[in-house]
Amino acid sequence: MTFSIPFVLAQAAAGAQGGNPILTFLPIIVLFGVFYFLMIRPQMKRQKELRTMLSALAKGDEVVTNGGIAGRIDEVGETFISVEIATNVVVKVQKGSVSQVLPKGSLKSV
Predict the structure, then answer these.
(1) φ/ψ of residue 18, rounded to 5
(2) Alpha carbon of 85 to those of 68, 71, 92: distances in Å?
(3) In this predicted model, what pLDDT tens digit does every residue of 14-37 receive, in sequence order?
(4) What SS3 state is found at 72?
C-alpha cells in the first residue's frame, strides 16, 4: 500500500483546519451546566438545610437518628448530643447522626 505525497499532504491540510473553538467546547459547557442545575445545586441546598437543622437543635426536641433511634434531646454539646430513648435511658450520639427533627408530641403517640 503506497501513498503518494500529495495525498498525505492533502489529509494533513484538511485536519489542520479547525472550527470555531467556542463551538468545540460548547457541548462540555452545556454538560457542566446540566450537572450544576440537576446535581450540584440541589445537593448544596440539602447540605445547607441540614446544617441549619443541626445548629438549631435544643433540649427537648424530638429527633430520629440515622440508625432509626427516636428520642428526646436531653443535653446538647458541641459535637455530641444526649438522647433519652426511654425513661432513664440516655445515649450519646454525634450531632451529624440526626436525620430529622420530629414535631413536638410525636414520641407520646408511639
Answers:
(1) -110, 155
(2) 11, 4, 10
(3) 555 667 888 888 999 999 999 999
(4) strand
